[in-house]
Amino acid sequence: MLAFVLAVVAAATPAPAASPLATAAELYQGAIARLAALPQSPYLSYEMDQTGYTREQGIIFDFGQNVVERRADRGFHNVVTYGATMLIGRHYLTPDAFIPNVNEPMTSQQVEPNLDTPAPTAPILKTIATVSSTASYVVTYVGDETIANNFCGDAAHIALVPKRNPDAFNVRDLWIRRSDFALCAAIFDSWTFSGDGHFRVKVAAWLDERGFITNWRNESIDQPGLFDMGVFKNVIWVTNVPPGLYFSH
Prior knowledge:
This protein has about 250 residues and is mainly beta. The chain has helices spanning about 1-10, 25-35, and strands at about 15, 45-55, 60-70, 75-80, 135-145, 155-160, 170-175, 185-195, 195-205, 215-220, 225-240.
């Protein structure tokens, strides 16, 4: 299953090693520092198209939404645009999943990808040579690869092994552009919800230069053969929203 998801993310072919020749640990620290430095606002507006399918049945659902996310408490105002008859509350994957949100508590069954967050006063990008020994992962270099149909082009692939609590520290692979530490793609373990309850999934996600997930694909760990994929469109930060929006959790 993992090999299948890896193949989907990477679409990778060997590429010449880029400069600077940062170590795996420096790449990781640079990526999380860049994510923490990205601009953000109290609200996020986006469109989401999502399709679920199984190997046996094919497509089992297909729907779209317009969404406003309130980051302070992870509330969501959902407007279904096509296809869905279900009640949609909390979103289990969002475009800003990799951008640190200090208001989001970590849970024992982590939903969002959980990377370390640098201290607010930490130097950003230029003084990453000193790597913190308190990182939650052991990171190793896999190789430099070219990611098809992604803004990064060539990227360094690093593998992450959590030092503790693998359910909470749930990111397994990152692809990082060496020139500026932009995060290009990732694989992480997550939990999602169906009529049968919560189940584990392995998520492959591609990102844009703003740190937003643009599209994803996941495969159920507990229910092999059950897949889900989707895209985020027209993603923008919003400072204020109109009154009367209903934010469900």
